[in-house]
C-alpha cells in the first residue's frame, strides 16, 4: 500500500510516523513554505504543478491512496487533491484537527468567513489586536493602527505600518498565553479555526480575561470528501482502502 500524505503540519508529521509504524509505504509531501517544513526528514518538497501535475504524480508514482493532512486553511491544495484523485481514481481522505466550533467559548466569538471580514470587525474595535492568523494573510489587516502579529517564521516580508511581529512557534500553554495577553494589553484576539487541543490555550486565556475573539471559519470542503480528525480513524481508513 503506497500512500501519498499531503502535509506541512504537525498533525501531518505525526500521521506520517503512525502510518510508517503500521507498515504503510508513505510518500510525504510538503509545500516547503517554512524551514521546518523543508527540513522534514524524507519528505518531497514543492508543489506538483496544479491538478494536472498531481494527477500525473499519482499515476507515475503508483499511489494507492491519498491522505490530505494539510492545514484546514490550505484550501487550494485540498481542492486540487480532490480533483486529481477523482481523475486518477485514487481514494482520498481529509485529515484535520477537530474544529474549535465545539470549544466551550465558541458561541461568544464573532465568526467571520474570511480575513477581509476579520479586518473589518477589528477596525471597529479600539485597542490592540493580537493576530494569530499566520504570515501570509497579514496584508489583509493593513490599516489597523495597533497590531501584534504572532507568526511561527518571519521571512522578511514588508511589515505593515502599525504592526509588530512576534516570531514564536507553538504550542503555547495557558499561563504563557495569559501572560502575553496581559503584558501586551491585548483588547482583541483574531484567530483562524485551525482547531486541535495544542493551540487552543489562547482561546481559554482570552475567555479568562474577557477579551473578545474574532474567529475565521474554515473554508468549505470539496463535496463528498470524507474527513476524520483522529490518527486511529485515519489508520482504519487506510487499512480499509488497502483491503479494497
Ligand atoms: P494552498 O494555498 O492550499 O496551496 C498552494 C499550493 O502550494 C498548492 O496548489 C500546491 O502547489 C502547493 N502545496 C500546498 N501544500 C502542499 C503539499 N503538502 N505538498 C506539495 N505541494 C503543496 O496552501 P497554503 O495555505 O499556502 O499552505 C502551504 C502549506 O503550508 C500546506 O502544506 C499547509 O499544510 C501548510 N500550512 C498552511 C497554513 C495555513 O494557514 N494556510 C498553516 C500552517 C501550515 P501545486 O498547485 O503546484 O501542486
Would you write up a description of this structure?
By secondary structure, this protein is α/β, with parallel strands linked by helices. The protein is 34% helix and 22% strand. The protein is built from 8 helices and 12 strands. The strands form 2 sheets. A 6-stranded parallel beta sheet has the order 3-2-1-4-5-12, with helices on both faces. The protein has a 6-stranded parallel beta sheet with strand order 6-11-10-7-8-9, sandwiched between helices. Helix 3 crosses helix 4 and helix 6 packs across helix 7. The longest helix is centred in the middle third of the chain and has 14 residues. The chain starts with a strand and ends with a helix. The model has no long low-confidence stretch (mean pLDDT 95). The site of NADP nicotinamide-adenine-dinucleotide phosphate (NAP) has 23 residues, from strand 2, helix 3 and helix 4.
Gyration radius over CA: 19 Å
Question: Which ligands appear in the coordinates?
Answer: NADP nicotinamide-adenine-dinucleotide phosphate
H and E string: EHEHEHEHEEHEEEHEHEEH
- What oligomerization state is this entry in? single chain
Largest sheet: 6 strands, parallel
Helix count, per DSSP?
A: 8
List low-confidence stretches.
none
Shape: elongated
Number of strands: 12
Strand content: 15-25%
Strand order within the widest sheet?
A: 3-2-1-4-5-12
Classify the secondary structure makeup into a structural class. alpha/beta
What is the terminal-to-terminal distance? 11 Å
Brief account:
The protein has eight helices and twelve strands.
Amino acid at each position: 500500500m503506497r500512500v501519498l500524505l499531503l502535509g506541512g503540519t504537525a498533525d501531518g508529521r505525526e500521521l506520517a510516523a503512525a502510518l510508517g509504524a503500521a507498515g504503510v509505504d508513505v510518500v510525504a509531501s510538503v509545500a516547503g513554505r517554512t524551514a521546518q517544513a523543508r527540513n522534514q526528514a524524507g519528505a518531497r518538497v514543492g508543489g506538483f504543478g496544479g491538478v494536472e501535475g498531481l494527477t500525473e504524480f499519482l499515476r507515475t508514482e503508483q499511489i494507492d491512496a491519498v491522505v490530505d493532512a494539510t492545514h484546514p486553511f490550505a484550501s487550494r491544495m485540498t481542492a486540487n487533491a480532490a480533483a486529481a484523485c477523482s481523475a486518477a481514481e485514487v481514494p482520498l481522505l481529509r485529515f484535520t484537527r477537530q474544529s474549535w466550533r465545539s470549544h466551550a467559548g465558541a458561541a461568544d466569538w464573532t465568526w467571520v468567513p474570511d480575513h477581509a471580514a476579520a479586518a473589518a470587525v477589528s477596525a471597529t474595535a479600539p485597542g490592540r489586536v493580537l493576530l494569530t492568523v499566520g504570515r501570509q494573510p497579514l496584508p489583509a489587516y493593513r490599516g489597523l493602527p495597533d497590531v501584534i502579529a504572532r507568526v511561527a517564521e518571519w521571512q522578511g516580508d514588508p511589515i505593515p505600518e502599525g504592526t509588530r511581529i512576534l516570531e514564536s512557534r507553538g504550542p503555547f500553554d495557558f499561563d504563557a498565553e495569559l501572560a502575553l495577553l496581559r503584558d501586551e494589553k491585548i483588547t482583541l484576539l483574531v484567530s483562524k479555526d485551525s482547531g486541535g487541543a495544542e493551540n487552543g490555550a489562547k482561546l481559554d486565556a482570552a475567555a479568562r480575561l474577557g477579551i473578545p475573539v474574532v474567529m475565521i471559519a474554515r473554508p468549505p470542503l470539496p463535496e463528498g470528501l470524507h474527513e476524520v480528525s483522529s490518527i486511529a480513524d485515519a489508520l482504519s481508513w487506510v487499512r480499509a482502502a488497502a483491503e479494497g
